[in-house]
């Protein structure tokens, strides 16, 4: 098992050797017992498929207490039954209309020859990609000055990535437009970063009209198609979830996410994905318009009263112990970001949640229950041990996001 950590702008890489899933157990520590004054127990771990999630609580001594006088500090965290390979954030950016208006001003008059109309690369790879694209930042430069609303968009995107995903950067952003006949066939973007994103500036519907299956004349729809199509993770190993009584059609095989205006879609780029062919408008001012790229550079982030130096000193010691514990557990692949809220006065972990979670067993498991239980053991071990951290006191609460890269 090879793992590395770096305190300042650090990240955690966990690459464990292959192990059989049968080596996992429902008790943390691989049967080694408790760790000093802290114990972790499952309240809903069982060998059956759970409807929602499992929880654990830990009881820790106050850092200032003796063994005879302890302070109970409980932390509860949910472990998803399945990895969360894609999710959306609607109404993501408050100035999305400004970005859209800038684009519309450049393209609404097809007879006007301005520089912005000549920026597009017609990208066509036979039987794979057909779209118009251009570097987004260059598009939003106005002379020598970057459009203030685009600059703020990148700031908001980076802030969200650092605080929720423990990813400190993103690749240069593309602006892409799709009109009639354009789309992307299924593909995977493995080397670019742990998570991909698509931010929609598409205004394809009257927002007040829910009948999106109607004809264009009824609901103001400019085109059909254009959905971000992602292979459902359970179908990646088809026989794992095979049900001979189930009717299997496109909607059972793929998740399709509408390019709703001001929607940020974040997904695991390892999953085969694409864009459904757009059918309808040939007008770029009415096409599928998105900003897209990949989040990368995993790094611990910290906001609030604590400094990254304060956090690094505590995490360095804890992560060494955590890595030893993970050596005893099944090998995993994927990415996870653990968010911790820290009390100001005591430095205790007040709450824990997962900002991202694409973790799956490295070995293919036939039984979905085994997948769930394996994830439970590994992710609850991480959350449980991280909840034991005690940070220095500070003047205000802090939020810490810690990345874990498996594989």
How would you describe this structure to a colleague?
By secondary structure, the protein is of the alpha+beta class. It has two domains: 2-80 and 304-406, no CATH class; 86-297, Jelly Rolls. The chain is 20% helix and 32% strand. The protein contains seven helices and 26 strands. It has helices at 96-107, 136-139, 148-165, 216-219, 250-253, 308-326, 368-386, and strands spanning 2-4, 12-15, 39-42, 53-59, 74-80, 86-89, 121-125, 129-135, 141-142, 145-146, 167-170, 174-178, 183-187, 195-200, 223-224, 228-231, 254-257, 264-267, 273-275, 279-280, 288-298, 301-304, 332-342, 349-357, 360-361, 398-406. Strands 6, 7, 8, 11, 12, 13, 14, 16, 17, 18, 19 and 21 form a twelve-stranded antiparallel beta sheet that branches. Strands 1, 2, 22, 23, 24, 25 and 26 form a seven-stranded mixed beta sheet that branches. Helix 6 (308-326) crosses helix 7 (368-386). The longest helix has 19 residues, at 308-326.
SSE blueprint:
Blueprint: E1 2-4, E2 12-15, E3 39-42, E4 53-59, E5 74-80, E6 86-89, H1 96-107, E7 121-125, E8 129-135, H2 136-139, E9 141-142, E10 145-146, H3 148-165, E11 167-170, E12 174-178, E13 183-187, E14 195-200, H4 216-219, E15 223-224, E16 228-231, H5 250-253, E17 254-257, E18 264-267, E19 273-275, E20 279-280, E21 288-298, E22 301-304, H6 308-326, E23 332-342, E24 349-357, E25 360-361, H7 368-386, E26 398-406
Parallel strand pairs: 2-26
Antiparallel strand pairs: 1-2, 3-4, 4-5, 6-18, 7-8, 8-12, 8-13, 9-10, 11-21, 12-21, 13-19, 14-18, 14-21, 15-20, 16-17, 16-19, 22-26, 23-24, 23-25, 23-26
